[in-house]
Amino acid sequence: MKHFLSITDMSKNEMQVLFKTAARIKKETRAGKSRSDLMGKTLVMIFEKPSLRTHLSFEIGMTQLGGHGVYLAPTDIGLGVRESVSDVAKVVSRMGDGLMARVFAHRTICELAANSRVPVINGLSDWEHPCQILADLFTIWEIKRELKGLKLAFIGDGENNVAHSLCLAAGLWGMHLVTACPVGFWMKEEVVGLGASLCKKSGGSITQLSDPDAAVNKADIVYTDTWVSMGDESEKAKRLNFFKPYQVTTKLIQQAKPNALFMHDLPAYRGNEVTSEVIDGVQSIVFQQAENRLHIQKALLVHLLKH
Ligand code: NVA
């Protein structure tokens, strides 16, 4: 039995297989063809935080595979308060065929996995957002066909789930990740260490800077995320102030390669981390990224739950 808690829980080869499956599934879905891979199976979805894409893509994905998704809202079960995390995992995994959870602390998803009899999927924790980055890699692959050697500039909050999973993905795929983040918001050392050790094998690199202009120089991809992640709301005023010089603008993106792609995991706070001009511009692939959550996660669900 496999869990998907970190982007490193899947090898590059496994991801390549998933990309091909997802591309096939995407075509079929758009042609209105239904599948029955997960007929009679149920995915239990536990949320400690709000969600649009993760909730929709997993629930719709299960329906389109012939199965079912059960949504448990933050107040429904009181994870770790009304009932211990381990007890929840034991009960859920005696009924459901898979468990997807969006949690505050990464240790919660690890504890769910440690006590589960069925595969557990990380639908975002404070440490990683592997489903998003899997969809992002699939999106880049759809457009470029090759990930190795690409320069990806990440601008904004490095000390967070999205940047962390990108760092590890760069290590797995041999991409060159350059981040520009204010001092104090750099990626966690543990993640950078792991990313760097993966880079030794793959030929990728991880560079952390504070200057957005230097980071985007000749980049193939410019990526940003919210400055105020879920759970960071109490620091909002401080963060908006610190991050001001890190907005992705047309002027900034012009320093990347002429055909550079703009990516964002959404939700986007227009006028903060990105201008409307950039997110609605021709280089932006944010809605392709969002749609691909559905297709790649269907491939992931089949990979993990079908036996
Ligand atoms: N870093 C963001 C990602 C949202 C999908 C957050 O954790 O809120």
From TrEMBL:
InterPro entries: Asp/Orn_carbamoyltranf_P-bd (IPR006132), Asp/Orn_carbamoylTrfase (IPR006130), Asp/Orn_carbamoylTrfase_sf (IPR036901), Asp_carbamoyltransf_Asp/Orn-bd (IPR006131), Orn/put_carbamltrans (IPR002292), OTCase_ArgI (IPR024904)
Pathway: Amino-acid biosynthesis; L-arginine biosynthesis; L-arginine from L-ornithine and carbamoyl phosphate: step 1/3
Transmembrane domains' residue ranges: none
Source superkingdom: Bacteria
Annotated binding of carbamoyl phosphate, by residue: 102, 129-132, 293
Gene3D superfamilies, sorted: Aspartate/ornithine carbamoyltransferase
GO molecular function, one term: amino acid binding
Gene Ontology annotations for the cellular component aspect, listed alphabetically: cytoplasm
Main location: cytoplasm
Alphabetized Pfam families for the sequence: OTCace, OTCace_N
Keywords linked to the UniProt accession: Cytoplasm, Transferase
Domain Aspartate/ornithine carbamoyltransferase Asp/Orn-binding: 148-303
Listed EC numbers: 2.1.3.3
Binding site for L-ornithine: 161, 225, 229-230
Catalytic activity field: carbamoyl phosphate + L-ornithine = L-citrulline + phosphate + H(+)
Domain Aspartate/ornithine carbamoyltransferase carbamoyl-P binding residue range list: 2-142
Annotated compartments: Cytoplasm
GO biological process assignments: citrulline biosynthetic process; L-arginine biosynthetic process via ornithine
UniProt record similarity statement: Belongs to the aspartate/ornithine carbamoyltransferase superfamily. OTCase family.
HAMAP family: OTCase
Protein name: Ornithine carbamoyltransferase
